[in-house]
Write a structure and sequence with these properties.
Elements (H helix, E strand, L loop, with lengths): L2 H17 L9 E7 L12 E7 L3 H12 L6 H8 L5 E5 L10 E5 L4 H9 L28 H12 L3 E8 L4 H4 L2 H10 L5 H15 L7 E3 L2 E2 L7 E5 L7 H4 L7 E5 L8 E8 L2 H6 L5
Parallel strand pairs: 2-3, 6-8, 8-9
Antiparallel strand pairs: 1-2, 1-4, 5-10, 6-7, 9-10
Protein name: Polymerase nucleotidyl transferase domain-containing protein
Organism: Actinoplanes palleronii
InterPro entries: NT_sf
């Protein structure tokens, strides 16, 4: 897009943010940063990349889980009052601390609109700046980088390069009635998600993948909850919710593999990463996703 349009989009977003500071959910926001090609001064940036730092309280966390379970975007409650239905903006939430690339502060809680706009206009156009190079990319991540932030990909790449893990790309087929009729599967799914939820669909696909390989589904820890009561050498989660648990799961947890459904959806392909331990000692040395 033209840089002038990108500037207008950010100005509009900052206006909405300041207007909504007295009401939830915008009152939860602490800081807003811009990064990527716009922040570097590109004359023809791609989408405007923004990081929104906000406080999570019990009410927010509960609503977030309810939205995901119903198949909705958990961050829509923040994204919509900021951007409305405008296109051209990509949001990251609470990514500043872990980011390994520069971000430019636009607004901090307590700033007025003029301060935020002054910071925005201090970012000068640079005719030599192009789009950001994609870092920490592997063939396994192609097409998934929208849901796999750079710092997450970097942790995976580091672990692979050190010989601690291997990562495979999977496309999981939907569960068939015979999979869902398994007594362990049926009980677990019924207790956790409605059939219309993308998490229900993703869980069924993970169960089906394991059953077709001859794995007892009772041996799975699914989205941080044990399915059965015995040993659980298999782990799975959705939408990068529990990636911090991978090193423990594949070492002290005795895990044989971790399946991560990257972006649960109601329809379309279910893309997943299958993470396997290559060296338990090297896995224990890693300090990632912290």
């Amino acid at each position: 897009m033209e840089r002038s349009r990108a500037v207008a989009l950010i100005e509009e977003l900052l206006g909405h943010l300041l207007e909504g500071q007295g009401e939830r959910p915008l009152s939860l926001i602490r800081e807003v940063y811009v990064f990527g090609s716009f922040a570097r001064g590109a004359l023809q940036p791609g989408d405007v990349d923004l990081d929104v730092e906000f406080d999570k309280d019990w009410a927010w966390s509960s609503a977030f889980v309810d939205a995901l379970s119903a198949g909705h975007d958990g961050y829509l409650a923040l994204r919509r009052p900021l951007a409305g239905r405008r296109r051209g903006m990509q949001f990251m939430f609470n990514g500043h601390e872990a980011a390994d690339f520069p971000m430019t502060l636009l607004w901090r809680r307590g700033d007025d609109l003029s301060t935020a706009l002054a910071r925005l206009h201090e970012i000068k156009p640079d005719p030599t700046a192009g789009r950001a190079e994609r870092h920490a990319m592997l063939p396994q991540f192609e097409g998934l980088d929208r849901w796999l932030p750079r710092f997450v990909r970097a942790h995976f790449v580091e672990a692979i390069d050190r010989g601690a893990i291997t990562v495979e790309r999977l496309t999981l087929p939907d569960a068939e009635p015979r999979h869902l009729a398994h007594p362990v599967v049926d009980e677990h799914l019924w207790m956790r998600w409605p059939p219309t939820s993308p998490l229900y669909r993703s869980a069924g696909a993970v169960f089906a993948y394991l059953i077709d390989r001859g794995v007892d589904p009772a041996g799975l820890v699914l989205h941080k909850r044990k399915v059965g009561r015995g040993a659980t050498p298999y782990f799975a989660s959705f939408a990068m919710s529990y990636l911090r648990g991978i090193p423990w799961a594949l070492t002290e947890g005795g895990g044989r593999e971790w399946i991560e459904v990257v972006h649960p959806v109601k329809r379309g392909e279910l893309h997943a990463l299958r993470v396997l331990p290559a060296s338990v000692p090297k896995l224990k040395e890693l300090d990632w996703f912290r």
